[in-house]
Specification:
24% strand; Lyase, Ornithine Decarboxylase, Chain A, domain 1; 431 residues; TIM Barrel; 12 helices; binds ligand LLP; globular; 2 domains; alpha/beta; nine-stranded mixed β-sheet
Amino acid sequence: MICDNITVKDGILYFAGQNTVELAKKYGTPLYLMDEDKVREKCRAYKRAFEKHFGPKAQPLFASKANCFKRLYEIMTEENMGIDVVSSGEIYVVKLAGFDLSHAYFHSNNKTDEDIAYGMENGIGYFVADNVEEVKAVEAEAARRGITQKMLLRLTPGIDPHTYEAIATGKVDSKFGSAIETGQAEEIVRYTLQQPHIQLMGYHCHVGSQVFGEDIFERAAVVMLEFLADMRDKLGFTAPVLDLGGGYGVRYTEEDPYLDIETKVGEVAAAVKETCKRLHLELPEIHMEPGRSIVADAGMTLYTVGTVKKIPGYKNYVSVDGSMADHIRFALYGSKYTCYVANKMDEPAGFEATIAGRCCESGDLIQTNVMVPASVGRYDIIAVCTTGAYHYSMASNYNRLPKPPIVMLRGGENYVAVKRESFADLCRNDV
Ligand code: LLP
């Protein structure tokens, strides 16, 4: 199967050892499932690999944008993870879960004055500044509060990660960060070092997401370390921290490779150590910010089939009770997924269909060219795999559809972490 937490028994699809058809019956559909044990396993794999390859101070930070709800941060707290956040909204949820915000890194390319104040009020550990304007604004707020704020600078190393254009972020023309190539990175370092209320701790880069390229992270690490050494030589400033961002790809389909966390971190570590040696640098405190690779395959979405429409000579549609409102990645990026008819796993899948959502929009598709059993019909359960990242966190209420609940699966038990939205929830702000 696509992931080792998916199995089949008596013609039924099981996720994290639990019967998905029973879960659909118990909680209704559309339904997001999250395998809590898998999330913990991934956090531990990152922690172990970091400690082994980079030493005890190195830290993996969970990238909140991949998925963000209170229970998930309670798990991150228990697993001793750091986190990255990109908005005051994410900070608010993190806080609700009792997470210690001194282990949080505040990203985004445009923090408002209110965001900056909110972050400081809540004791955010590090601001990651994208540009000089932001450094100025952080300095002003820190001065007002009479504090010294720790900071990283987001730089663009000019590496093309060969992923979808929309999620490539490390290239020179990116909207994110200050480019090393144009000299803007040096400028922002010089500027930041002069600020009395900012303690510059280091540099950050993020080259892109869903990255499988052989040596992308290694090349980014080399460019960043060379910059770090350059600033040491020019300005006498040796940054103690280097954050290499997130981005490891996950298996959405059988064609996608499986990336082993320990191996990948080991490869980056080898490049980092070798470069440090060449440049006579002490090993900086290394961070990475995995999002997708921690939560994606811990997630699955369940839908119920409504109608099956056959257009002779053209195509077949299987319409489900979810949509682009809870599954936007196909409409946005054409992302591929593995889908199953969860209650018919022992029937041959010989019927090609497009799985369509229920929104009033032709582009509202869950997936095209899916092979399903020919008997597919009303009340069948469709499972879409690997939906733990960038699904709930990107969900909307388009067509006034309530967002699905999130049910956690843990050691044979299940419980609701996020309730299904009600119609009243949909108009709670209407006056
Ligand atoms: N750190 C920074 C600064 C980021 O911008 C991102 C992702 C990450 C970490 C986490 O990357 P990950 O390990 O999850 O690949 N909505 C898109 C993905 C956008 C990612 C943006 N930044 C999608 O659904 O594919």
